[in-house]
Structure formats: structure tokens, C-alpha cells
Amino acid sequence: MSKEDTKHRAHLPIQNTARRGLITYDAKDPDTKFPPIEQLRPPEGAPNVLIILLDDAGFGSASAFGGPCQTPNAEKLAADGLKYNRFHTTALCSPTRQALLTGRNHHTAGMGGSTEL
């Protein structure tokens, strides 16, 4: 972690920056101020992460879990004892994507239903 990087990274997702001072909802109000958006970069030596999102597919779909969809690489990993199964799925694709992108429960992220609604 570099000297200028003071973000706490033990728990993900990283918490949002708390707003301080007066919060108004009028862009023309001179007292309306927002802190600049800080660019967040991974620390030196951080691992690469691959995210795979499958719509309308549960754990039972992949062949690594006994399903009909052939996933030979996942089967090889599973044969060595590595199964990726610690993700909360939702009943719809939109909330699942919201949960995956934010790292939060889909209701907490404001996505309780499908975006078409």
C-alpha cells in the first residue's frame, strides 16, 4: 500500500465517503459543494480478478456441480477441490448484477426487482 493510499482494504467493498457539511439539492445554490471524486486504483501487487456472470443459471447448471452445461475448466478446478460457490444469487438477472457490481445485497443497492419494471 502506497503512502498516499489510506483506504481500509480489509473488507470489500470499500465504504463510501461520508458527506460532510450542508447537503442541498439545488445545483444553483452556492453552498452546494461535493468533494472531488478520488480515483481508486488497486495497491501494488494486487491480484487480478476474473468475474463471470451467468444470467438465469444456478449452481446446478454447470457440469462441475452435476449440471448439463459443460464447463471443463471448472470441472478441473473442482476435481482439485476448488469450487466457487460463495456468491448469493437472486431470482432475477438485474438484482444479481447489482449485487455483483456493488458487493452489497441487491435491496440495499436499490435494486429489488427487474429494471424493466
Considering the chains and any ligands shown, give keywords for the structure:
117 residues, 2 helices
The whole-angstrom Rg is 20 Å
Count of discrete alpha- or pi-helical segments spanning 4 or more residues: 2
Average pLDDT = 77
The number of distinct β-strands equals: 0
The coarse overall form would be elongated
Strand content: under 5%
Summarize the helix and strand pattern as letters: HH
Ranges where pLDDT stays below 50 over 5 or more residues in a row are none
**How much helicity do the residues have?**
10-25%
User: In angstroms, what separates the terminal alpha carbons?
Assistant: 43 Å
Describe the structure.
This protein is mainly alpha-helical. The protein has helices at residues 72-79, 93-102. The model has no long low-confidence stretch (mean pLDDT 77). The radius of gyration is 20 Å and the shape is elongated. The longest helix has 10 residues, at 93-102.
